[in-house]
Amino acid sequence: MDRTIAVEKELTPVIQYLSEKGYKVESIEFGSDYSKNIDKYDAVVVTGMNKDFLGMQDVVSKIPVIEARGMTAEQVYWQLNTSLKQ
């Protein structure tokens, strides 16, 4: 699988699970530094604790953003696969 997924560093189980499933995963801390490079990822997984995860409230991106709050690593994986197929 040639997909690169950005995952908030707090989501260690998700990082491990997605890596095991063949995704290239980058564990990152979101902030304004990532907003300009966000399009290098195929998707982003966030904790959901910070709605303004890119440091900008009105960022427009064509990539899926998965909010992992309340989800298992497997649920995130299935949501990610569904989002990437669209």
SSE topology sketch:
Elements: E1 4-8, H1 12-20, E2 24-28, H2 32-35, E3 43-46, E4 65-67, H3 73-85
Describe this structure in words.
It holds the Pfam family UPF0180. It comes from Clostridium thermosuccinogenes. InterPro entries: UPF0180. 24% of the residues are buried. The protein has one domain: Rossmann fold (3-Layer(aba) Sandwich). A 4-stranded parallel beta sheet has the order 2-1-3-4, covered by helices on one side. The chain has 86 residues and is α/β, with parallel strands linked by helices. The chain is built from 3 helices and 4 strands, in the order βαβαββα. Helix 1 crosses helix 3 (73-85).
Topology pattern, helix = H, strand = E: EHEHEEH
**Portion of residues within helices:** 25-40%
Give the CA-CA distance, first to last residue.
Answer: 17 Å
The fraction of residues assigned to DSSP E strands is 15-25%
Number of strands: 4
Query: Helix- and strand-based class?
Result: alpha/beta
CATH 4th-level superfamily: Response regulator
Number of domains: 1
- What best-fitting shape do the alpha-carbon axes yield? globular
Strand order of the largest sheet: 2-1-3-4
Helical segment tally? Answer: 3
Mean pLDDT: 83
Fold-level CATH name: Rossmann fold
Protein name: YkuS family protein
InterPro entries: UPF0180 (IPR005370)
Organism: Clostridium thermosuccinogenes
Pfam families: UPF0180
